[in-house]
Amino acid sequence: MNDSVPMGTISEPTIVEISEIPCLMVRRVVRMEDIPAHYDSSYQKIFSLLGQRGVAPTAPPLGISFSMPSEKLDLGAAVPVPTNTGGEGDVEYFVVPGGAAIKVTLTGSFEMLPLAYGTIQEWSDAHSVERGELAWEQYMIMPTPESDPAENITDVYWLIRA
What we know:
The protein is α+β, with helices and mostly antiparallel strands. 20% of the residues lie in helices and 41% in strands. It has helices at residues 35-53, 113-126; strands at residues 8-10, 14-18, 21-31, 62-65, 72-80, 92-96, 99-108, 131-141, 153-160. The protein starts with 7 loop residues before the first strand and ends with a strand.
């Protein structure tokens, strides 16, 4: 077995209706190799701010893509919060818009995320569904340094153009 091949499964795409998701977010344009460091520092800032304020997240964290990946990606590390939770410094309040979205669930390594997005792209093209500008990942099981990447569960959403 080749250990360099990521392992996991990607569900069949479905169309789901999403409600608005208010978040606190740190947004940066980052190189692909800098994504883990962006997430680590950003989630630390957001959770620290929430802890100082005694505010609990309302759902698992998100990674929001504001652009198609190339050498760099316009990326937000976000945590869903109660409506109108104020930001501070580079932690801003942002609302993921509601609407129809294409969803897949990835069970396994984050290295498979490009395949998950590719699955959505292929499915939407085959079904003449026009994708919007915003896509995001929701980390249903947050990884830790000790955890097995095969146990990650990530829901991937891509808004449908209205």
